[in-house]
Write a structure and sequence with these properties.
The longest helix has 17 residues, at about 45-60. The two termini are about 25 Å apart. About 30% of the residues are buried. It contains 2 helices and 6 strands; from the N terminus they run H-E-E-H-E-E-E-E. By secondary structure, the protein is of the alpha+beta class. Strand 1 (about 20-25) and strand 2 (about 25-30) form a beta hairpin. A 6-stranded antiparallel β-sheet has the order 1-2-4-5-6-3.
Length: about 130
């Protein structure tokens, strides 16, 4: 059963990430952190920030091909700019780099629009296998 994302991603559902917008090589993901998502400085843990950005970038990639059933992360780089202490939104933008590989970039913002982190990554689209393969 889908709750927020257009594909079932149990880990993202567990964290409480919300797919706010998807289409045309763009995606927006929202996150309202809970105490268990924080580090010792009361900011979203770096692994959480990376996960939110990964979800936004990979969703942006998936939006470019309606036949794909997912996108796997080949590589991702995140630059942490400022501590993320409250609700955040990640925005991802994708463009094709080949038949099944795509490049994406994006940012994580706070409510005021301040950039908290930037990410770039390469993603591989996943397709259903034909019967008998």
């Amino acid at each position: 059963m889908l709750t927020s994302f257009d594909v079932l991603i149990p880990f993202l559902e567990h964290l409480g990430l919300r797919l706010l917008e998807i289409g045309g090589g763009r995606a927006r993901v929202g996150f309202d952190p809970k105490p268990e998502h924080m580090n010792s400085w009361k900011a979203i843990h770096g692994g959480g920030v990376m996960t939110i950005l990964d979800a936004a970038l990979s969703s942006a990639c998936r939006s470019l091909d309606e036949d794909c059933i997912g996108a796997t992360t080949v590589e991702i780089k995140v630059n942490f700019i400022a501590a993320a202490r409250g609700p955040v939104i990640a925005e991802g933008r994708a463009q094709r780099a080949g038949r099944s590989l795509l490049f994406a970039e994006g940012e994580l913002f706070d409510r005021e629009g301040t950039v908290l982190a930037k990410a770039t990554g390469t993603f591989k689209l996943v397709y259903p296998q034909a019967r008998g393969e």
